[in-house]
Design goal:
homodimer; alpha+beta; Ribosomal Protein S5, domain 2; Alpha-Beta Plaits; 2 domains; six-stranded mixed β-sheet; five-stranded mixed β-sheet; 32% helix; globular; lyase (chains A, B); Mev_decarb (chains A, B); sterol metabolism (chains A, B); nucleotide-binding (chains A, B)
Chain lengths: 422, 422
């Protein structure tokens, strides 16, 4: 071990995207290794709007592994963190930083301790797959710090052991988590189907929906589903394999109608098996249902899908519009049906890529109030009422790229001298 | 044709119960004959609280078939009404009323016209299977007027062609609709499993839930499910047949835990296949979900089911309590979680068998306001808020008997001299 003895700190910062499944992962065949009962496919979201940034650091002066999430220290004792740390340390290589005069031999990594700070640029509790981005970023940043030789696909198999869907955050674009066959999980990993440039017309709008009920964690939820649902095995064995093939084709061919149909039906079927669980699990609420009805009505009126929707283990809607034009029309419809509460300003109600708002011709709250019912709503006195506050805010984004190392040291979350959060 | 020519009116009034499925019917294999893709099992509800009363009359002075529902004339031209009328007329027999001096030969029924008046003692629009009771009552009352030799099971196969679930309203107690195998539907009919005295401890509480959304009709809903769901065939072929056997056992043995488990899981699975339909169908809303969570939490706390719940094609909850004592405890919980709006009086908020309210120790609105959280609710500051007005009213009832002819002529809905609604 070189450098100024006991004083040096080696540090690296990386950023990893979140992802949303368009063919859903629900149900494990191995709880510890996190091996799924079916393949899944996701789209990576632009890290400019939704991502985790993680700084990892190592120093002989650190006396135990520590981690801070959004500035608050959290325990690393959980089995899933421990699995990831163990797997990464086992693959660590020699590291040399000539500029700083630091040399670390691969066997040293077993004794050295880590400080890790992680930050989500979106609310952790909003149900936006923060654990996926977080675990992926932990694994990715540590692999770079420790100079691992593994490629992102091999790293995904480590991230998978931290949080199943994290494995899909190791790539940009469209990603497939291959369920694999091996008992040890070595072939259960993510591969990139296409990168984010392949289908760059797509625009994604997320509705962060207010939840009145506490939600079932996805870990216990999917365990209950596998144990009690009479439909989940049929879904995993008969339905999903066909859909995965069709979805890969739809993505390769940029076939939006097929993509939308598969995305929507697979989201609905995931929520169906949740409902078929005993006791039943409800992730979608009345607001989620109204968003679906709004999109379905519009798609039907247009005679072909304009927008796909998908919901994870919570009430938030992720809507994928075929292009910027439909995204602007979608945003008009969403703001018409789900206006903000009177004390909310537009700037905090629609966040992310604000240019969609501009395309929709909406500059301020007066423009929102002036929105007229879309043509597909024939009966404006319908039972479906507008109610303010059902949606907390909207995020406009797009498919995005995979993990990157941030070379700009000012973006580090840890102090380079103390190794503690800035 | 005898009697005073062209002047006489022969009239008969009958009352038929409604029913709620505990193993659900969803999906037809023949749309015209209304043949289902699986067996179903229902409990008949006490006609004292929920029933249809129908008066049927025949007279040579009537020049066409006419029908009034809840006082308003409706068309009989629909294929389903026509199927029932055709099937019944084809089986009509000679009728003689010596007192009135009326004689009708069976061949006369093809030429004679009918006046029919029907009345539900509960709101038609409340989603409480009014069409089941209505069609059953139409078929039952006409069969008596026309002196049919068919038993109730054979009549059920006629009622089935009017409204599938109507066939189960031909008997009291617990009833099975056998799906049958014949293409002509002759063996798709209802049989009584046990009468209403077999398991007379059960108490039923119905929550009539406010709906914000217009609902999908069950006819088009189940057609869409059969055409688009990837799970419905697995349910019909693999899951339901086993549950039907288990449910018959549970009913025979008055095994409440098994009965409750089967009832709840089958209701949930029915709603799961609705969600797996494209576009998805949502019958339950947030209030329905909260009712389920309330019941599930209590059942779990007691270590064994106290209450079963089931939902048809709408948000209303039908809860079946194992006995009067649990029903009173259930009503306390329901009134605690779903209090009436301040301008509602208790007498119109809890209707039907008011003795359950008395057992619950609730005499007036002050007693409702004084209700404390049940012991299973540990965190009274939980996210689940009480909100007034989510439930329109509760109906307390019990399993009940089958169709009966009402001999009291004052209960007739048609004027005996004019044949028009009173």
């Amino acid at each position: 071990m070189g450098g100024e003895p006991e004083k040096w700190i080696l540090m690296l910062t990386a950023r990893t995207p979140t992802n949303i499944a368009v063919i859903k992962y629900w149900g494990k065949r191995d709880e510890t290794l996190i091996l799924p009962i079916n393949d899944s496919i996701s789209v990576t979201l632009d890290p400019g709007h939704l991502c985790t940034t993680t700084t990892v650091s190592v120093s002989p002066s650190f006396d135990h592994d520590r981690m801070w999430l959004n500035g608050k220290e959290i325990s690393l004792q959980g089995g899933r963190f421990q699995s990831c740390l163990r797997e990464i340390r086992a693959r660590a290589q020699d590291v040399e930083d000539k500029k700083k005069g630091i040399q670390i031999k691969k066997e040293d990594w077993q004794k050295l301790h880590l400080h890790i700070a992680s930050y989500n640029n979106f609310p952790t509790a909003a149900g936006l797959a923060s654990s996926a981005a977080g675990l992926a970023c932990l694994v990715f940043s540590l692999s770079k710090l420790m100079n691992l030789k593994e490629d992102n696909s091999q790293l995904s198999a480590i991230a998978r052991q931290g949080s199943g869907s994290a494995c899909r955050s190791l790539y940009g674009g469209f990603v497939k988590w291959v369920m694999g066959k091996e008992d040890n999980g070595s072939d259960s990993l993510a591969i990139q189907l296409v990168d984010e440039k392949h289908w760059d017309e797509l625009v994604i709008i997320i509705a962060v929906v207010s939840a009145r009920q506490k939600e079932t964690s996805s870990t216990s939820g999917m365990r209950d589903t596998v144990e009690t649902s009479g439909l989940i095995q049929h879904r995993a064995k008969e339905v999903v394999p066909k859909r995965v093939v069709q979805m890969e084709d739809a993505i390769q061919n940029r076939d939006f109608p097929s993509f939308a149909r598969l995305t929507c039906t697979d989201s609905n079927q995931f929520h169906a098996v949740c409902l078929d669980t005993y006791p039943p699990i409800f992730y979608m609420n009345d607001t989620s249902h109204r968003i679906i009805n709004c999109v379905e009505k519009w798609n039907r009126a247009e005679g072909m899908p304009q927008v796909a929707y998908t919901f994870d283990a919570g009430p938030n809607a992720v809507m994928i519009a075929r292009n910027r034009k439909t995204a602007a029309l979608l945003l008009q419809r969403l703001l018409y049906n789900f206006p903000p509460q009177s004390d909310t300003d537009l700037d905090s109600y629609v966040i992310g890529d604000k240019s969609i708002l501009k395309d929709a011709g909406i500059k301020d709250m007066k423009d929102v109030e002036a929105l007229t019912p879309p043509p597909e709503v024939k009966d404006s006195t319908s039972l479906t009422q507008k109610s303010k506050g059902d949606v907390n805010y909207f995020i406009c984004t797009r498919p995005g790229g995979g993990p990157v190392v941030l070379s700009d040291e000012t973006q580090a979350l840890l102090d380079p001298l103390t190794g503690l959060p800035k």
